[in-house]
Amino acid sequence: MSSPRLAVIGLGLIGGSLARALRSAGAVGHIRGYDTDPRQRRLAVELGVVDEAPDSAAAAVAQADLVVLAVPVLHTAEALRACRDGLRPGAVVTDVGSTKQSVLADVAAVCGVVPPWFVAGHPIAGTEKSGVANSVADLFHGHRVILTPHAAQDAQALAAVTALWTATGARVVEMDPAQHDTVFAATSHLPHLLAYAFVDLLARLDTRDEIFPNAGGGFRDFTRIASSSPEMWHDIMRANAGPVTALLERQLGELRDVLDLMKGGRWAELKALFERARAARERHLAQIE
Ligand SMILES: NC(=O)c1ccc[n+]([C@@H]2O[C@H](COP(=O)([O-])OP(=O)(O)OC[C@H]3O[C@@H](n4cnc5c(N)ncnc54)[C@H](O)[C@@H]3O)[C@@H](O)[C@H]2O)c1
Fold first, then answer.
1. Cα dist from 172 to 81, 118, 164, 216, 236, whole Å
2. Residue 254: CB within 6 Å of ligand 1?
3. Are 144 and 271 found together in one domain?
4. From ligand 1's centre to the CA of 156, what distance in Å?
5. Count of CA atoms in the C-beta half-sphere (13 A) of 91
6. What is the CA(206)–ligand 1 centre distance, in A?
7. pLDDT band at residue 152 using 50, 70 and 90 as cut-offs
C-alpha cells in the first residue's frame, strides 16, 4: 500500500502522536481526524497534526485506507459504530487501546464478529499527559507495539498495521489478547491504581499541607502516573477488572505481610525483601533490550 490515506478517530495524545509520527516518516498521504470534542478537532488542524477534521466520524473515514481508533477503551464501540457506515471497502481498522480482550469484545458486539479487517493493537509508549496539544512525533520511536491477532485476522490487514507502526520507529510484537491483559495488569494497570490510591491517601491526611511541599524526587518518581487522565484509567480498570483485582488481592496480602514484619520488628526479613526486590528489578531491567 503506497501512501495510504489515514483517518484518526480520537485526536488525543496517542492519536495525535501517531498522526505526527506517520506524517514525519512520509508513511501516509492525506490525514483526516475526528474527535467528539470540537476543541481537539480545531487544535489538531491548527497544529498541522491532521489535514482536515470534519464534524463526523463517518466523514473522517470516508476516503481512508487505514483507520485508527485512539479513544479511551470503553468508547471503542461507540467510535466504531459512528464510523462503520462510512468505511470504504478494503479499509483496515486498528486501535491503540490499553486493554485487548475488551476491545475485541466491543468490536464483535458492533460487527457481530471480529471482522478480518480489524487489527487490535497497543503501543507501549505514552506519558501522563492527554490531548493533541501534548502529541509528539517521536513518542513511539524505540518502543514496543503489541498486536493481538484474532481467529479471523486477515494477514494483509495485519501486515498493513505492522508496517504502519514500523514506520514510527516502533518494534512490533504479537501476543495473545488474554496474555496481553494479564501482563499489562501487572506492568501498568496495578502501578497506576497504587499511585492514584497513594496520592489520594496523602491528600486526605490532616498534614497534607506540609506533606506536598516537602515531597522529594522519590515522591515524584512514584506518583508521576497519578497525573494521568482519570477518564482513560477509569476505562482501563473497568475493562481489565478481572486481572487487576486478582493482582490487587495479592498486593494487599504482600502489604499485610510487610506490616507484620514492621509490627513484629522483623527487620532482617524486611531488609531481605528489599534486597530480593532490588535484585529482581535490576535483573529484569538488564534483560530489556
Ligand atoms: N496515554 C498513554 O500513555 C497511552 C499509552 C498507550 C495506549 N493508550 C491508549 O490510547 C487511547 C487514547 O489515549 P490518549 O492518551 O490519547 O487519551 P486522550 O485523552 O489524550 O485522547 C482521547 C481522545 O478521544 C476522544 N474521544 C472519546 N470518545 C470518542 C469517540 N467516541 N469518538 C471520537 N473521539 C472520542 C476524546 O475527546 C479525547 O480527545 C486509550 O485507549 C488508551 O488506553 C494510552
1. 27, 16, 10, 37, 22
2. no
3. no
4. 26
5. 25
6. 35
7. very high
Residue whose entry in the numeric block shows the C-alpha cell 495479592: 250
Q: Which domain range does residue 35 map to?
A: 6-175
What would the pLDDT profile of 179-214 be if each residue is shown by its tens digit?
999 999 999 999 999 999 999 999 999 998 998 888
pLDDT at position 3 is: 86
Q: How many residues are there in the chain?
A: 289
Average pLDDT over residues 123-151: 97
pLDDT digits (tens, 9 = 90+) for 242-262: 999 999 999 999 999 999 999
Q: What is the CATH number of the domain that holds 266?
A: 1.10.3660.10
**Which of 149, 168, 167, 171 is CA-nearest to residue 158?**
149
Are 161 and 188 in the same domain?
no
Mutate to test the pocket of ligand 1, among 14, 49, 104 (most ligand atoms within 8 A of CB): 14
Cα 89 to ligand 1 centre (Å): 26
